[in-house]
UniProtKB/TrEMBL annotation:
Keywords: Repeat. PPR repeats lie at residues 299-333, 334-368, 405-439, 440-474, 475-509, 544-578, 579-613, 614-648, 649-683, 684-714. InterPro entries: PPR_P_subfamily, PPR_rpt, TPR-like_helical_dom_sf. It holds the Pfam family PPR_2. Residues 110-139 are annotated as: Disordered. This is Pentatricopeptide repeat-containing protein. Residues 116-133 have a biased composition (Acidic residues). SUPFAM superfamilies: HCP-like (SSF81901). Belongs to the PPR family. P subfamily. It comes from Penstemon smallii.
Length: 828
């Protein structure tokens, strides 16, 4: 095949660039042409062509090329499109060289390559690695004699920026991402150039899903004539620190390091918290090392973050060792450090240790604050240890001069109400008022709601009357709590009277109040009345999504499925989209009543109107068709899953496989199982049980064993052969079960013993006493002792069958192991 001159020239330029790059990095092997060459001096290269740009490149050129190279594929114009191979060239450079900053300090990026695992990877920690402190040794390199300047950096988005027209318009365009056109993107590009850095931060913060914020961050970074301000990077990290998107946080931090953006300890702390939320504790702590390699010194804030990460990761002992090492290297813990440990003690129910730590804090020059005491008080409130709670309040006043005030009592009242201790909360309310600390209507409402949840409506009404006598008039939240209590107790008529009383007292009910009343009506079997009340809401109150859901589920519970479907249609027409869970509840109810066709129609309507239908909804419909033995319709819905750009899960396949095997379509069940394995899905225990049952029932044992071998290659399932043997015995096929006995006699576990007993009983049931004797003998050979009573039954059956030698040997082996029947003892 011949190549034209332009194509040949481009290939030669690519090869020249690759060889020049390999020479600079010191590689001795060329990947593109698989040739070996020796390491050369930094500035020399034997690769030269007529193209002036194909000559050797200097280190600054390579560095500039790597720094300016983006992580995202610029050929993609879809919103949030990312490239999978974004940083390969950068990783190669990062392994051998450092990038010099203007100040002469070197920023080593090697540490970031330690976190290249996928986001879904689980942390692998061996038993012997749990107590290692390798990640904490970053403290040892801390220079306590070095002069430091405490730089405070506060990045807060003004609420006014969130309401800015530009920010709201961009957020609206992002919400329309599923129906984007080139015009939408052009408009978004135009608006992006008009945004101030603080407004870009506001857009990131305004997104309901942090993934959308990250995608917008990436998309904006690719735009022409736009460059992220440093505060945008800081704001993005702060947003990601509240999520498990640790890979996104790591990538943002890497971009900041590549682009020479000034880094602060708080930035590394955000990445650390994100890794911790994702369950990667060791990787979170390794951020300390990465931070030092980047030339950023440790400070108390990042150390407190590390302590909190350890506490949240249930590594309290390691957090204590970290605190000790901080003190050794010269980083003085502050009250935040100790508060994190106090929280860890309380979470482990070691409240005595928490109190002891509070007592030791003044000796170390750090006095506890109210948060220190409130943390312990919260645990005492949860455990209803009121006497100890009062003692702690007295100690707080005596030892630290922190006087319990209105905030203290409010905190205690709300914590007691949180754990449903209304009587105790009421006692503290009266105590606070006696000491001159009036509790507002919020505290009263919390106690009233707690009484209502406990069913003590009389107590709640007494407290409301007490509020009136104090001049603390209840508000709509207070009335709604009592109204909801009436509805929970089934006293809907009282709830209606209370609603009228609210108007008389000048308190207008809101949507929550009416929704609580409608919920009570629906639970009382009066869903039609609830709907009529909602229809008359115009001018009085406006129903929301919860209101429609309440009435829809009321119709569903009453079996009025046509009215429930109408409610969903009306709900969508009002702009309220039901969740997949709500859709699934209605679909499941329809399928249970045999109305699977109607359930499928409802799901399709929800799909057409933009509702979030997931694979669980499809699986419910498939299961409904399978229950009706309509496999063709079930397989048709399975195809619809792919047509709607979704993927069936292991539950979906298990439902189909079970239905196919139940209808004796074994070959199709085998192919569906192979398809599930090929899709990367792992079979569930239900999958195994279903296959084993139907294959054993049909007597197709060889095909079952071949299929199980393929399944076990993907996922080990220890008791699978036990189930096969037991199921074969259930269907009377003991000879085939005996052939598999060797596969369950490898571990000698209790489950294996039970399986052997089932097989022995199966042989006895079939009149084959010798078969039971053989199973018992193999058990003895594996140091497994069969059941004494069962062996006696086998021995009697052997004697009846004139197998006297086998009967004597069986009882002799029992005697040798100290298992003698009562009859033998009496004979002795």
């Amino acid at each position: 095949m011949s190549l034209n001159s332009n194509v040949r020239k481009r290939i030669l330029e690519t090869l020249a660039t690759t060889h020049s790059f390999s020479t600079v990095t010191g590689l001795s092997r060329c990947i593109c042409c698989d040739n070996h060459f020796h390491k050369r001096p930094f500035a020399s290269s034997s690769w030269s062509y007529k193209n002036p740009n194909s000559g050797p490149r200097s280190a600054p050129q390579i560095r500039k090329r790597c720094v300016e190279r983006d992580d995202f594929d610029k050929t993609k114009h879809d919103f949030g499109g990312l490239r999978g191979k974004g940083l390969e060239e950068f990783r190669i450079l990062g392994s051998d060289c450092n990038f010099d900053n203007r100040g002469g300090e070197k920023c080593n990026l090697d540490g970031l390559n330690d976190f290249s695992e996928s986001e879904d990877e689980e942390e692998e920690v061996g038993e012997n690695e749990e107590d290692k402190d390798d990640e904490l040794r970053a403290l040892d390199s801390f220079d306590k004699n070095r002069k430091r300047s405490e730089v405070s950096r506060i990045i807060e988005v003004d609420e006014g920026e969130l309401r800015h027209p530009l920010v709201r318009e961009i957020s609206r365009l992002i919400d329309l991402r599923s129906a984007w056109t080139p015009n939408h993107e052009s408009e978004l590009k135009r608006l992006l150039r008009s945004l101030k850095p603080s407004q870009v931060c506001a857009v990131l913060k305004a997104q309901p899903d942090e993934r959308l914020a990250l995608k917008f961050f990436y998309w904006a970074d690719r735009q022409w004539r736009y460059k992220h301000d440093p505060i945008v990077y800081y704001a993005m990290l702060k947003v990601l620190s509240k999520t498990k998107l640790c890979q996104g946080a790591k990538r943002v931090l890497r971009l900041m390091m590549r682009r020479k953006i000034e880094l602060y300890p708080e930035d590394f702390g955000c990445v650390m918290v994100s890794f911790s939320r994702a369950g990667h504790l060791r990787k979170a702590l390794q951020i300390l090392t990465v931070m030092q390699r980047a030339g950023v010194e440790l400070d108390i804030s990042i150390c407190n973050t590390a302590i909190n990460v350890l506490v949240e990761g249930e590594k309290l002992e390691k957090a204590l060792r970290f605190l000790v090492r901080m003190e050794l290297v010269g980083i003085e813990p502050n009250v935040v450090s100790y508060n994190c440990l106090i929280k860890g003690y309380c979470e482990r129910k070691r409240v005595e240790d928490a109190i002891k730590l509070i007592e030791e804090m003044p000796l170390k020059g750090c006095f506890p604050d109210k948060i220190s005491y409130y943390t312990v008080m919260g645990f005492l409130c949860k455990e209803k240890r009121i006497d100890e709670l009062r003692g702690l309040m007295e100690k707080m006043l005596a030892e630290t001069k922190l006087r319990p005030d209105q905030v203290t009592y409010n905190t205690i009242i709300h914590m007691l109400c949180k754990y449903n201790h209304a009587e105790e909360a009421l006692g503290f309310l009266h105590e606070a008022e006696e000491k001159g600390f009036p509790i507002d209507k919020v505290g009263h409402t919390a106690i009233i709601d707690c009484f209502c949840q406990e069913g003590k409506l009389d107590k709640a009404k007494e407290l409301v009357s007490e509020m009136f006598s104090k001049g603390c008039n209840p508000d709509v939240v207070t009335y709604t709590a009592i109204l909801n209590g009436f509805c929970r107790a089934g006293e809907v008529d009282q709830a209606k009277k209370l609603l009228q009383q609210m108007y008389k007292n000048g308190c207008k009910p809101n949507c929550v109040s009416y929704t609580a009343l409608l919920n009570g009506l629906c639970h009382s079997g009066k869903s039609l009345e609830a709907r009529e009340m909602m229809n008359m809401s115009e001018g009085w109150w406006t129903p929301n999504a919860v209101t429609y859901s309440v009435i829809m589920h009321g119709f569903r519970r009453e079996g009025k499925f046509s009215e429930a479907c109408d409610m969903i249609t009306e709900m969508i027409g009002k702009g309220f989209f039901p969740s997949p869970v709500e859709i699934n509840l209605l679909i499941q109810s329809l399928c249970q009543k045999g109305k699977t066709d109607q359930a499928k129609k409802l799901m399709e309507e929800c799909l057409k109107k933009g509702c979030a239908v997931n694979v669980v909804n499809f699986t419910t419909v498939i299961h409904g068709f399978c229950q009706n033995d309509d496999l063709d319709s079930a397989l048709s819905v399975l195809d619809d899953i792919y047509l709607n750009n979704k993927h069936p899960d292991e539950v979906t396949y298990t439902v189909i496989i079970d239905a196919l095997a139940r209808k004796s379509r074994i070959d199709e069940a085998i192919e569906m199982t192979k398809k599930m394995l090929h899709s990367g899905l792992l079979p569930t225990p239900v999958t195994y049980r279903s296959l084993i049952h139907h294959f054993c029932q049909k007597g197709r044992v060889e095909e079952l064993l071949k299929l199980l071998e393929k399944m076990l290659q993907r996922q080990n399932f220890g008791t699978v052969y036990n189930q096969v043997i037991e199921k074969l015995c259930y269907f009377g096929n003991t000879d085939e079960a005996y052939k598999l006995l060797g596969k369950v006699l490898r571990t000698a576990s209790r489950i294996d013993v039970n399986t052997c007993h089932i097989l022995m009983k199966g042989f006895l049931k079939n009149g084959n006493s010798v078969g039971s004797y053989r199973v018992a003998s193999r058990m003895f050979n594996r140091n497994m002792i069969p059941d004494l009573k069962l062996c006696e039954e086998v021995s009697k059956k052997l004697i009846v069958d004139k197998k006297l030698d086998e009967a004597d040997k069986l009882m002799l082996r029992l005697v040798e192991r100290g298992h003698v029947s009562p009859e033998c003892k009496q004979a002795g």
